[in-house]
Amino acid sequence: MSQHIQQAPFPGVFYRRPSPDADPFVEPGSSVDVNTTIGLLEVMKQFVEVKAEAAGKVQEVRADDEQVLEAGDDILVIDTSGEGA
Amino acid sequence: MNGRLLIANRGEIAVRIVRAAHELGLTSIVVHSEADTESLAVQLADEAVCIGPAQAAKSYLNIDAILTAARDSHADAVHPGYGFLSENAEFARRVEAAGMVFVGPDAGLIERMGNKSEARATAMAAGVPVVPGSPGPVVGIDEATSVAGDVGYPLLIKAAAGGGGRGIRTARNESELREQLPLAQAEARAAFGDDSVYLERYIERARHIEVQILADGERAVHLFERECSLQRRRQKVFEEAPSPALSEQARQQLCESAVALAEHVGYRAAGTLEYLYDDDSGEFFFIEMNTRIQVEHPVTEMITGIDLVREMIRIALGQGLSLQQADIQRRGWAVEMRLNAEDPDKGFFPSPGRVEKLIWPTGPGIRIDSLLYEGYRMPPYYDSMVAKLIVWDETREAALKRAARALDEFCLEGFTTTAGLHRRLLDDPAIQRGDFHTGSLEVWLETQSQALSQAQSQPRSSSVEEAS
């Protein structure tokens, strides 16, 4: 099974939801394409959408909502084995 | 009173307040988050107390944690700085209820001036002109269109509880008003917990000019005005004092109206009254009052020689206002350039990092208010402003030349800042003439980025005048 481990591109606070009351952008099992928004990263009061870097199924979400991430910390794991199938 | 001042803020303003405290012979106590243990303010302060995790909501905005730190450290007074809890009436009230002095006006005044529609009504009662608009909050669309009929388009729909440029929408005609009003109300409810909005005429080519005041509850004095028209997304970028737009007569009227309003409400603290100034008609209109020290206060200090932070602490400690209006003279010209850790060539994307090398400009007329030092790693959780470069000289022309000289000396390695943007602004003929309004900078930036993408290798030149 091939995987893509997506990491934080820069340090910041990670948000799994578009707003506190909303559902998470993705859950384990969600299908994502390249450019599907998987979360928000807040850096210096600016919110940046984090886009999936690979197409596939979300296998595991490793970053919690509101977790402080350093650049290179894992956000989630995408199972890319079904890609193009 | 043991002379212990707790500083409930971070960054350059915490450093600024620590310095004032030490000059007044007070013990400085800085609260900080887990992300700020290495901050310059923590290093310079006499004492430091960690109050919680990196996220501001859990530290710098956590009233309980700050009050606990204040009590445990036996603070006599609390200075809120700007931003965070500085205009939070509940915080002011709870500091006072805990038997400490809040360095700012009382909670009731923060509430009154913090609510934009109430502030507006107060200004009208004090005889200060306000931007034509609805007398109070508007509820339904019928009321809104009726107000629009009197005031005329274009209009701004403003959240009564908004501020700092947030919670504002524009409507250029009735159909836009019908569309935008419910959105503005929903947005205001979500952002501020209060869906009150009011309408104001949108003056498109206005300057933003503000008046600094100091008051002790009985008497108020003004320290002249600051010109803050150069803004991006309603955030100030470059400020100066005095304003190049005002005649002596206009200056006097504007400043006296600010004193009248402060005395009308029995204001007791440092404060700033913001106005829109219409270059063409010479009219000015009060827009809001900030009941705290402001980022750009140093330009006022540079032209008056008066230390505003020390004065506001003295007033809060009950020492009254030592200054008479006639004591306050202005001399020369001062500009402030906000250096943000953002890359202007990449849409102002934040660029946090570690300070690898840092050389500040020095020499005559230069002042740096900053949180940086060599080796400092900037946390990514807070505002991107890392320094204010403040320059004074005898005339505006000389101050702009000195500012360019200062920027040429400045060297920072490790991340990108907006210093290069300021250097380009100083070369612009319209900036040099003082010919701009609150919309000018965004047009200038747009022109610059188009020029940059069209001709990467060719020298760029553009001006506000060409662009507008």
Percent helix of chain A: under 10%
β-strand number of chain B:
20
- CATH domain class name of chain A: Mainly Beta
- Highest CATH level, the class of the largest domain in chain B: Alpha Beta
Shape of chain A: globular
Task: Write down the overall mean pLDDT of chain B.
Answer: 93
**Total E-strand runs of chain A:** 8
Count of DSSP-assigned helices of chain B: 16
Strand order of the largest sheet of chain A: 1-8-6-3
The largest pleated sheet of chain A is described as: 4 strands, antiparallel
User: What is the CA-CA span between the terminal residues of chain B?
Assistant: 57 Å
Structural class of chain A: mainly beta
Describe this structure in words.
The complex is a heterodimer of chains A (85) and B (468). With 85 residues, chain A is mainly β. Chain A has one domain: OB fold (Dihydrolipoamide Acetyltransferase, E2P) (Beta Barrel), CATH 2.40.50.100. Helix content of chain A is 0%, strand content 46%. Chain A is built from no helices and 8 strands. In chain A, the strands form 2 sheets. Chain A has a 4-stranded antiparallel β-sheet, with no helix packed on it. Chain A is globular and about 35 Å long. The mean pLDDT of chain A is 90. Chain B is α+β, with helices and mostly antiparallel strands. Chain B has 3 domains: 4-103, Rossmann fold; 132-201, ATP-grasp fold, A domain (Dna Ligase, domain 1, 2-Layer Sandwich), CATH 3.30.1490; 206-454, D-amino Acid Aminotransferase, Chain A, domain 1. Helices cover 35% and strands 26% of the residues of chain B. Chain B has 16 helices and 20 strands. In chain B, a hairpin with a 3-residue loop joins strand 9 (206-216) and strand 10. Chain B starts with a strand and ends with a helix. Chains A and B meet through loops of A and strand 16 of B.
